[in-house]
Fold this protein.
Amino acid sequence: MTLVVLGIDALDPHLVDSDDHPSLTLDSHCSIETIVSSSGEPSTHELWPTILTGLPPGEHGLKLDDGVAWQNPLLRAGRDVARYVLTDGLRTKIGAWLLNNTDEDQFRVPATYYSENSIETVFDGHESKAIGVPNYVVDPDDRDREHELRKSMGELFKRDTEAKGGHTSEDPFEFYELCMEMSMVRIARNRRALRGRNYELVFGYTSGLDLIGHVTYDLPDLQIKAYDELDDFVGELRGDLEEDDELLLVSDHGLQDGVHTDEAMVAGTSEEMVEEISSVTDVADAIEHELEEGDHSVADRDQGFELDEEKEQEVRGQLEDLGYM
């Protein structure tokens, strides 16, 4: 059967409730420790490689350095020069300008980085599917609706180091709609991979909740609405699970008042798996243990399997409506 891991950036343990959000808390959930970067708060750039490997940033080598934009290979030479000739504050502002005014994507370290540096990940040795996981890019040409929307937001999501949440939006309500569309696409892709029954491990990721949180610090009801809607989306994914499948939700940090917090969370259909995780560095071992101990072998594709036609059409319809198919 299949283990589905859904990474929800900034899913905050203090903003979920088992009564209001049964699909975000599942059968068991808890707060876990995360890692603070050199910027003074947890960093997406560093933490998803940690979640995939179980290694802290100093060991996997993907560390935040002078702002995310400077991590792009095309800009690293300029970063190294800038370190010697520019002040810290000016380097940060230039990094923000690069993120706002260039087409270079964030978090696009290729999957080959890990094998080239002899670093094991949760994907090694398993029939697996990675969907949009930051800094684990299997195919540079695989850009879905979430990638497209993140690159085209313009004034709807602008980095501003002076703003409370580090970003501003000219229209938070329109921005909210785009972010929820992003989350729908990614969760639909997880559903499609699960229903294909070709993988032991499906590991997807969405950043919609994080993006909304950064610009709704003065609109708390909008952030709460995002949790309510996301609970519905994950509920649809949960509904696709078969009896022996498992679902694990993971975040890299929380987010309140527009700022990353130093608590992340996990939730799962397996209480035992959740109990194994007390930190972001424990997630990889818990996934590996589940894959090794549970029956997550890929079914014989030649034998075929029964399809729930109504659910199949629902998933395909969502992907078509969102422009992905």
Q: What stands out?
A: Residues 63-107 form one domain. The two ends are 26 Å apart (CA to CA). The chain has two domains: 3-60+109-321, 63-107. The CA atoms of residues 70 and 79 lie 6 Å apart.
